[in-house]
Design goal:
This protein is mainly α and 68 residues long. The protein is 47% helix and 0% strand.
């Protein structure tokens, strides 16, 4: 399994500013996780948190489970 890229604080803050996520309802850890997923090639996020899931979907990095 390939390791994820860990976003720096500066990269996380830049994502928040660029995407205007200031009042998204997600905390710093969620934002850092989202930034890391964006920096990691072919990585997707499978969040249980609805607010984080909405942001991941908006950015095209949300995992969608296929039904059988």
């Amino acid at each position: 399994m390939q390791q994820a890229v860990i976003a720096t604080t500066d990269q996380t803050v830049a994502l928040i500013a660029k995407e205007q996520f200031h009042d998204s309802g997600c905390g710093a850890i969620d934002m850092a996780l989202l930034a890391s997923v964006l920096l990691s090639p072919d990585a997707l996020l499978w969040p249980l948190d609805k607010k984080l899931g909405a942001l991941a979907a908006r950015l095209g990095v949300s995992f969608v489970a296929r039904s059988h």
